[in-house]
Design brief:
By secondary structure, this protein is an alpha/beta fold. The protein is built from 11 helices and 10 strands. Strands 1, 2, 3, 4, 5, 6, 7, 8, 9 and 10 form a 10-stranded parallel beta sheet that branches. Strand 2, helix 5 and strand 3 form a beta-alpha-beta unit. The longest helix has 16 residues. The radius of gyration is 19 Å and the shape is globular. The termini are far apart. The structure holds S-adenosylmethionine, 6-(5-methyl-2-OXO-imidazolidin-4-yl)-hexanoic acid and iron/sulfur cluster (SF4). Iron/sulfur cluster (SF4) binds next to loops. S-adenosylmethionine (SAM) binds next to loops.
Length: 326
């Protein structure tokens, strides 16, 4: 097995690589914790202000009733959860929510829809929303499911800055979690987004019962994409009653921090987002995640359908840690 310290120090700039071997990633992931955090923090400082954290706000513009069977998701029609499905929101209401998010300090507004893929009139409405949200002075992001090449170009022309589409987990574990679309479908959407000139936001979920090797494999897939995603959301599973992963045990906190640190080392110029799951994390755990190179969060009391820390709690955490919005 390669010595990861050697593989890093061979490249003094650490560089942006797309040829990580599984052995290298596995070895970085397994470094002694202090060594791992030191390397992650050192690389982080080459590209970013270590006290700056990018702040995004999410809004579910179309909730529930999704035909896909993602086992973690409260919005799938395959599972009985307490969620009330809702039609695509009114454009003015979305713009109003974006305005409030900007006033509260968010720099990016992410619109999420529980679709397999966007279609027809609904897609036209989303295009209009994107333009109107951009006009409010926010970076725009959307996550609408699979896109074809023409849809990606249309979103770019409408003013979309980022598209979120996650690989979710390793190719090996994927079929245990989703059967209604393939890993390759996801990679195809990412290609369309990238080729349209939209920044890719792509990451995954940990704590779904996968093993360390799956986390290594997911990070390897992300880091070996033709371009590193501009944003890499690392979600901790939010367990929702009625979904098949409801009873899943929490991932160990140190293992979660290792995932963040490894993402930072592999993708040095990307924003690594400490995404879903923060309500269950202590301030100390989040501080370790920031130290490991996380530099983006979702801010606002709701993610899409589940909770996120109160803004007052996040403001207090930022003050305590001397962090400021990027
Ligand atoms: N329907 C679109 C799709 O799946 O591409 C967009 C919305 S979907 C909710 C966006 C992402 O949210 C998923 O890919 C998944 O990574 C994340 N997600 C959904 N439910 C989650 C949960 N319970 N815990 C953590 N992350 C979750
Ligand atoms: C991502 O990676 N995490 C966000 C965003 N992309 C769209 C979604 C998290 C959803 C958590 C469950 C929910 O609130 O429905
Ligand atoms: Fe649908 Fe997205 Fe939820 Fe999967 S993650 S069930 S595609 S809303």
């Amino acid at each position: 097995m390669n010595n990861p310290s050697a593989c890093l120090s061979d490249k003094p700039e650490h560089g942006v690589r797309h040829d990580w071997s599984r052995d290298q990633v596995r070895a970085i992931f397994a470094l002694p914790f202090n060594e791992l955090l030191f390397q992650a923090q050192t690389i982080h400082r080459q590209y970013f202000d270590p006290s700056a954290v990018q702040v995004s706000t999410l809004l579910s513009i179309k909730t529930g009733g999704c035909p896909e069977d993602c086992k973690y998701c409260p919005q799938s029609v395959h599972y009985e959860t307490e969620l009330e499905p809702e039609q695509l929101m009114d454009i003015d209401a979305v713009v109003e929510a974006a305005r409030r998010a900007r006033q509260a300090g968010a720099s990016r507004f992410c619109m999420g829809a529980a679709w397999r893929n966007p279609k027809g009139k609904n897609f036209e409405r989303v295009l209009e929303m994107v333009g109107r949200v951009q006009a409010e002075g926010l970076e725009t992001c959307a996550t609408l499911g699979m896109l074809d090449a023409d849809q990606a170009v249309a979103l770019k022309e409408a003013g979309l800055d980022y598209y979120n589409h996650n690989l979710d987990t390793s190719p090996e574990f994927y079929a245990d979690i989703i059967t209604t679309r393939t890993y390759d479908d996801r990679l195809d959407t990412l290609t369309h987004v990238r080729e349209a000139g939209i920044n890719v936001c792509c990451g995954g979920i940990v704590g779904m019962g996968e093993g360390r090797e799956d986390r290594v494999s997911l990070l390897c897939e992300l880091a070996n994409l033709p371009e590193h995603p501009g944003s890499v959301p690392i979600n901790q599973l939010v367990r929702v009653e009625g979904t098949p992963l409801d009873e899943q045990t929490d991932i160990d906190a140190i293992e979660f921090v290792r995932t963040i640190a490894t993402a930072r080392i592999l993708m040095p110029q990307s924003y690594v987002r400490l995404s879903a799951g923060r309500t269950g994390m202590s301030d100390e755990m989040q501080a370790l995640c920031f130290h490991a190179g996380a530099n983006s969060i979702f801010y606002g009391e709701k993610l899409l359908t589940t909770g996120n820390p109160d803004t007052a709690a996040d403001d207090a955490l930022f003050a305590k840690l001397g962090l400021h919005p990027a």
